[in-house]
Amino acid sequence: MHVTQLVPFHLGPPLPAYGPPTVLPPQILRGLLRGLPETIYEADGCLLQPLTFSSPSPTYRQAMADLKKLNVLMCGTGEYTTGWTGSGASTSDKKIGVVALTLFDLRRRDKVNHLGMVGVNGKKFPAIRQHLEKNIAGAYKDMDVSFEEFPKDNLVDADAYKTAIDKMSPGEAVIIFTPDTTHFPIAIYAIERGLHVLVTKPATKLLAHHNELIAAAQKHNVVCFVEHHKRFDPVYSDARARAATLGEFNFFNAWMSQPKSQLETFRAWAGKDSDISYYLSSHHIDICCWILQDIAVPTRVVASAATGIATSAPYNCVPETEDTITLLVDWQSLKSPTHKGTAVYTASWTAPLKSGVHSAQHWYYMGEKGDINVDQAHRGYDVTVDETGKSWVNPFYMKYSPSESGHFDGQRGYGYISIEKFVDAVREVNTGLTQPSDYDKHGLPTIRNTVLTTAILNAGRISLDEKRPVGIKKDGEQWILE
Ligand SMILES: NC(=O)c1ccc[n+]([C@@H]2O[C@H](COP(=O)([O-])OP(=O)(O)OC[C@H]3O[C@@H](n4cnc5c(N)ncnc54)[C@H](O)[C@@H]3O)[C@@H](O)[C@H]2O)c1
Q1: Which residue out of 74, 75, 80 has the highest number of ligand 1 atoms within 8 Å of its CB and is therefore the one to mutate?
Q2: Is the CB of residue 280 less than 8 Å from the CB of residue 257?
Q3: Does residue 200's CB lie within 6 angstroms of at least one atom of ligand 1?
């Protein structure tokens, strides 16, 4: 391959020692790229990703040593963090979780240092540690799975996150994967103490809380991202770039569902603390808002819900629990007063069992000059096993099979990248290379760039509760509902 042009996309000033020459033979190019895994280079129109993480080169070690390692507190000890649920190891597609595994690997790669984990019930930690020892330390080479736990001494304490955060120093980071109603109080507590925050979706249930987080992050000059990992799915990010060439927006339709058995898993909060729209539609609402950033804005939301399955035997969820929620959203073009678009976002947790996928997910986008169809549940890769039948699997999200050297090998998965981007941003800010506001300009899921996702979800919930359309509009610098 003859490389004619090499363009670094790196937030902040380029690292001087690695200034790219214009023509490079592939073997030298590979050596350089191995040194800078958080940088994506474009050469001859190809995206070149870093090649290996198993045996970092001396240049890699030096570059990383220049940025201080980050101490991180994980809030939540559940399925997404550890793969451990109240009733044992998860049976979903996240058997060993995402957050802790990624952070253990980032520690192996010298990006993070001390790790803490806070839940509510300290009695769970022996089982969690055993699970991580067996399935992570026992499965991959060089994995240190140690962490400091909160609450300590087998105590049960819903405010243990305050104790854990109070022990931290400004500039350190908190990653929040707890029930939806707790995202806001934990995030604001951390931000007000000068800590950087990565919060899972939905960032907050209320638009007013989302606005408060934007203001607090700005005031305390910290990084605050929402963990919308689908933005790092190569198909979604490619589709966004193509949608940008299709002119005015016309129509978007998204479907996302999980099998009815999830109602057992979610029994503690389903219909009480949150709904299926917040839980699943948050993903594709965010993708749609991301695609339409600078193209159109949402103006009105009407919601409709199907009911009756979740509240019946054998699930017997609380009477308020909806099965399937659809949000119908009007969008107004920013450039053309005559161009208006419609989006339909549907999510369900009463989909059939044994469909071969944990999450069904597909969407359709139509613009003025063309359309895009995405089916992310079926990626042309299926596995059939005698006992369990056929399943469509997705290693592009989390790849759990080890590398040829026996190390964890999922660094290119978008579940991993999403967390690594946050860690990189925080380290760059802490070193003075960038400002937190720089990340708003790069299409990343910062708290400011995700406000319309929360506006639509919150409007949808009000529409269901009050049986009326809900308007979305800008009041000065702030988005509000009416
Ligand atoms: N599981 C997934 O696939 C997935 C994917 C993306 C995002 N999420 C989001 O992550 C969040 C948690 O999901 P999960 O599946 O890991 O849930 P889970 O029920 O398995 O775990 C929730 C954890 O939060 C902890 N928690 C509750 N209140 C707390 C508090 N006050 N302080 C500290 N910890 C507290 C609980 O102890 C538990 O460990 C939800 O907002 C969900 O939408 C989950």
Answers
A1: 80
A2: yes
A3: yes
Q: Cis link prior to 202 (omega < 30° from 0)? A: yes
Does ligand 1 have an atom closer than 6 angstroms to the CB of 395? no
Helices (H) and strands (E) in the chain, counts: 14, 21
What values do phi and psi take at 438, rounded to 5? -60, -30
pLDDT digit string (tens) for 428-469? 999 999 999 999 998 899 999 999 999 999 999 999 999 999
Phi, psi of 250 (to 5 degrees): -120, -50
At which residue do the structure tokens 């993708």 appear? 287
Which domains are assigned to the chain?
6-66 (no CATH), 70-228 (3.40.50.720), 234-395+452-481 (3.30.360.10)
Among 20, 50, 16, which Cα is nearest to 35's? 50
77 lines ligand 1 (CB under 6 A): yes
Tell me, using a 6 A CB cutoff, whether residue 185 lines ligand 1: no
| DSSP-derived 3-state class of residue 382 | strand
Q: List, for residues 95-119, the tens digit of each pLDDT value.
A: 899 999 999 999 999 999 999 999 9
Asked whether the whole model's pTM tops 0.70, one would answer yes
64 Cα: distance to centroid of ligand 1 (angstroms): 31
Ligand 1 atom closest to the CA of 229, numbered from 1: 6
**CB–CB of 30/46 below 8 Å?**
no
